[in-house]
């Protein structure tokens, strides 16, 4: 059964799935046959493009310090990093993620006590995504 992801109501489950799928794909890529590599690459491109397009028109694409922001943008970043060798649009996706999450990370500098209005569970995984983004920036920019 093929699920049409064009009509989903909440991007967060799609984002978590994209992060997991793209990460696993990146790890096992060289163990897959060429046809499967191509098929999975196309799916990651499709879903990442969809998430990118939704970032341009959904509320979370313009919000800060909210778990949907980090989750959804990290999914775009993960997909883009995995397919950047295969799809020229990936660099545009990465640029948007860097631009938008830099704003959120800048605001987080003012939170000295670790508090979050969303509570511990959301703040915990949001901060994990913040670390992921910082590490990804380092990877993208190379050693200094």
Give an overview in words.
There is one protein chain. The chain is mainly α and 144 residues long. 68% of the residues lie in helices and 0% in strands. It has helices spanning 11-28, 34-55, 67-83, 90-108, 120-141. The longest helix is centred in the N-terminal third of the chain and has 22 residues, at 34-55. The mean pLDDT is 84.
Characterize the overall form: globular
Compute the number of structural domains.
1
Gap from first CA to last CA:
48 Å
Q: Name the average pLDDT.
A: 84
User: What's the number of extended β-strand segments?
Assistant: 0
The biggest sheet, with number of strands, parallel, antiparallel or mixed sense and barrel status, is:
none
Helix-strand layout with pairing:
Elements: H1 11-28, H2 34-55, H3 67-83, H4 90-108, H5 120-141
Helix pairs in contact: 1-2, 1-3, 2-3, 3-4, 3-5
